[in-house]
Structure formats: C-alpha cells, structure tokens
Design a protein that fits this description.
Layout (H helix, E strand, L loop, with lengths): L4 E4 L5 E4 L6 E3 L26 H10 L3 E4 L23 E3 L4 E3 L5 H10 L3 E6 L6 H12 L5 H8 L10 E4 L14 H18 L4 E4 L12 H10 L5 E8 L6 H4 L2 H22 L7 E9 L4 H5 L17 H16 L4 E7 L8 E3 L5 E3 L3 H10 L3 E3 L7 E4 L3 E4 L1 E8 L4 E8 L6 E6 L7 E8 L25 E3 L2 E6 L3 E8 L1
Helix pairs in contact: 3-4, 3-5, 5-6, 6-8, 8-10, 10-11
Length: about 500
C-alpha cells in the first residue's frame, strides 16, 4: 500500500492575509504579446479600440488583479513619449532588447484603457536604462497629475481628462543584467533608483515603488546586489523584485518538479537580506517582495535564436506548454502562497502568446494553455488567508534537492464567505497517494468540489485544434468524515479541494 500523506487544517496555522496582487501578470512589447495578442485591429473580435474581446474574456476569467507593463528588457530602451498622441505621428523605432521594429501603435494610454476593459490594474515600469529621473518624473506627471501642467495637459489633450491614477511603479528592470540596455552596478542603480523614487513621490506621494532585485538567483552578484540596492533605497521603496524561470531541457521530470524548492530558497534568501538591511538601518519598516517575473521558459529558445531580426511582432518566446509545466506552475503558486507574509505582488510572465497561459492565432481564435488552469484556480479560490498545512509526505531523492516531498500543498481560508480551499500537487509519477487531513479546526465544513488536473502523458499540450486536451475535471474523491478530510491524489496531478461551511 502506498505511503499516506498527513496534513492539518486549522485556522491558527495562519501564514498571512493574501494580497490578491500575488496573482498578477505581465505584458511586454515582445513578440505577439501586444500586437496580435491583446491588440489586433481588424480582428473579427476586436472592439473599436482594437482590443481582442476573446482575449479580454479569458483574462477576466483569470481574475488578474494587476498587469506589469511595458517591460521587461524592452523598457530599458523605451521612450514612453513615442507611444502617446496621434498614432499616425508616432515613430517606428529599432527595438534593441529583442531586435524587432516597434511601431508604437500601442502605448501608455491604450494600456490604461485596456486595463479598465480587462478589469485589472496597471503596474508601470520606468526606463532607468537609456533614460532616468527626468523621464520618470514626466511620465508620472502625465499619468497621475490632475491637470494644469505640460504633461498632464497633454494627457487631457490626448483624450483622457481624468488621471490614470497608476499606483504601482517599477524602478527599471533587471538592471544587474549585462544584457540590459543601460546595465548598471549596484551602487549606480541604487543611487539612481533612490533619486528617482524621491522625485516620483514628490509628484504623487500615494504611489508604491518596486526596486530591482537580481535577475535570478544564479547571478554572480546575487545577495550583494540586493544588499547594496536596499542600502540606497530602503526608506523610499515598498517592494524588492525577484525574477526566476525554470525549464526541463534534459527531460528529468522529478528534478523539474522539484524546482519550486529553489524558488522557496530564493524567497527565503531575499527575505533574509531585506531583514538584514532593516536591522542595519534600525528601521521599523518591513520590505515586501514583488515576484514580478516567474514562469516555465525553455521550449522556444532554439526557434528564437533562428529568427530573423527587425520584424514587427514576430512569434518570439512562444513556449507551447505541456502537462508537466502546469504541475510546476501549480507548485510555484503554492510556494508563493506559503510566503504570502512577504510576497505581496507577483506577475506570471507573460499573459498572452509570450511564455503565456493564453495563446492566439492572428486573425483566428484564442485558447488556454495547460498552465492557465492552476493560475485560474488559485486566482479564483486562493483568497483570504494562507494556512500552513503542516504536511507530512514521503519523499524521493534528487541530486540537486536531496529529499523532495512527493506532495506539496497550502490552504486558503476566506472566513467571511465560509470557504476553505486546499491546493496540492502529487509529484509521484507512478503512484496515487492517499491524503488524510485533521479538520477538527474547521468543524462544520464539507467538501463541495474536488478539482483535478491529470493526464496520462506528461508532454501533452493544448493546441488551436485541440484546446481542451489538458483540462481540469471535478472528479476527485475528497470528503470529510468525522472531522477528517480524506482524498486520493492521482499520480502526477494538481488538486483543488474546495470546502464550505
């Protein structure tokens, strides 16, 4: 008989209130994310603004609370003024980050309009690569000042009388990376971010700011970068960013599904650095984290390398996600919820076509990739407070991560609505695992739905012709008997166990 998994459901095992912005996403001027993704004038389902309504519907279903824009590497060479005013007067430019042509038919005003239609909030990034403090001061005046000044009056003249009221701003992107336009040392970036933050908050004191952390945990400057940047910016910003992507190029699925352990360690390391700077400065302020780029990314790299440069919206970074990718995405979402005391915002990168949960065909349909489903479930049902399950699971050995629990999970409790949800993944590729949960802390709750995401083929994908190949079903066997939760977790599976009082 398979070893069982034990957990405890109790309201006192509270991690933190969940900030819904942990379920955010990201749109960059890269590939077909904008042109052919969210914006395609002439498409049968485009509205008068050129926004694809079929895509907006899928995004509304996801319940995306915030979207980061316009980059990404793109922002470090972007003149934001190119994307405002009459479209026929906007310049076409060489876009150096991704070696394409940027027509600037979609810019800040279009993005704000699109956010309102998609029921989401904007998170704007400013260019601290080729530009700096002055451009940041100007764009926040354009977006947030009511009127009576040069830039705010330009916004009004461009058809937006009311301020855009953008509340979250990123101070550049991946400035530690040598690939970045305007790459800087930690001291250079920290000083610039400090001065830019100061001026932006003079324009609008109500905003929140995100400083750039390391581009990933494997950067040679990791940890020293965070400490130096925070030394400069600690009292001027609210969040520090984290970025990470994982892949399975060697087809080692047990190791691939353990990558969320690396994400867990990354978060814990950065929390430690933040708390060190807090202690060093004798500050009362807690630094929170914005995990504003995360996903699986590796499928498309060979095709991207072979692509001709200087095209408009070529199909770059179009990873076709398989079933095992959805399992890791679920594990990454579980990991962030387990750190919801410090991770307050996160952006799955990206939203449409570019390493994305949503795919489109130019002039054709849109569909959900495999990774859409765990994102949908957590954004829909993962609200209220996060609860530690105190999980006890059998393990397997991995050379990189040592003892890896077969089962990982977290619970969320929305007390006001009387809703309790368990999210779990079984990493065991061959065996179903029974799970038992002590639910005495939630007496009176019953299982109303047990959603599973399973497939006999780890490499199964969803396509335009077969968009529902990997899809969730409400076919799980979870039930509560005598204050004990019992369920079976199928091999290689994602689970959402929904309970109500």
């Amino acid at each position: 008989m398979a070893e069982s998994v034990r957990m405890t459901l109790h309201p006192e095992f509270r991690i933190s209130d969940i900030d819904q912005r942990i379920y955010g996403s990201f749109i960059e001027h890269l590939g077909r994310a904008v042109y052919g993704g969210i914006y395609e004038p002439g498409h049968p389902q485009a509205d008068a603004d050129g926004f694809r309504q079929d895509v907006i519907e899928l995004i509304r279903d996801l319940n995306v609370p915030i979207v980061r824009y316009p980059g990404g590497n793109f922002v470090s060479g972007y003149d934001w003024e190119d994307g405002i005013g009459p479209k026929e007067q906007r310049p076409r430019r060489l876009e150096l980050a991704w070696r394409t042509i940027e027509p600037n038919l979609f810019g800040t005003d279009e993005f704000i309009d699109w956010c309102r239609k998609a029921n989401t909030a904007p998170m704007l990034a400013v260019n601290l690569g080729s530009r700096g403090l002055e451009a940041a001061r100007d764009i926040i005046e354009y977006c947030n000042h009511p009127g009576g000044t040069m830039w705010s009056d330009k916004r009004i003249a461009n058809g937006h009388t009311a301020p855009h009221n953008v509340k979250v701003w990123c101070l550049g992107n991946e400035m530690d990376g040598p690939w970045q336009i305007g790459h800087k040392t930690a001291d250079e970036y920290g000083r610039l971010a400090h001065e830019t933050a100061k001026v932006m908050k003079w324009v609008d004191p109500s905003i929140e700011l995100v400083a750039c952390g390391s581009s990933n945990r494997n950067m040679s400057t990791f940890a020293s970068w965070e400490a130096t940047v925070l030394d400069h910016t600690y009292e001027h910003v609210e969040y520090l960013s984290l970025h990470t992507y994982y892949g399975n190029p060697t087809n080692n699925t047990p190791n691939f599904l353990a990558k969320s352990i690396d994400m867990d360690r990354f978060i814990s390391s950065v929390v430690g650095i933040c708390d060190y700077i807090q202690a060093k400065k004798r500050s009362k302020k807690t630094m929170y984290l914005s995990f504003d780029e995360w996903n699986v990314w590796y499928h498309s790299r060979a095709a991207d390398r072979a692509m001709d440069p200087w095209q408009v919206a070529p199909p770059q970074l179009e990873d076709i996600y398989n079933f095992e990718d959805a399992l890791l995405v679920g594990l990454m979402l579980i990991t962030m919820l387990k750190h919801s005391d410090r991770v307050k915002m996160a952006c799955q990168a990206q939203l449409v076509n570019v390493i994305a949960p949503i795919m489109t065909a130019n002039g054709g349909p849109s569909w959900r990739q495999t990774i859409y489903h765990p994102y949908y479930h957590t954004a829909r049902y993962g609200n209220g407070v996060a609860l530690n399950l105190n999980l006890s699971s059998p393990t397997y050995h991995d050379a990189e991560f040592d003892a890896v629990p077969y089962v990982d999970g977290v619970a969320t409790w929305n007390e006001a609505d009387g809703e309790l949800t368990v999210f779990a993944v079984n990493r065991n590729l061959s065996d179903a695992l029974p799970i038992t949960g002590d639910a005495r802390g939630f007496a009176g709750y019953r299982v109303v739905e047990h959603i599973t995401l399973t497939h006999p083929d780890l490499k199964a994908v969803n396509t335009q012709d077969n968009p529902d190949n990997v899809s969730p079903r409400s076919n799980g066997d979870a039930q509560i008997v005598d204050n004990e939760l019992h369920a079976t977790l199928a091999p290689a599976s994602w689970h959402v166990i929904r309970m109500k009082k």
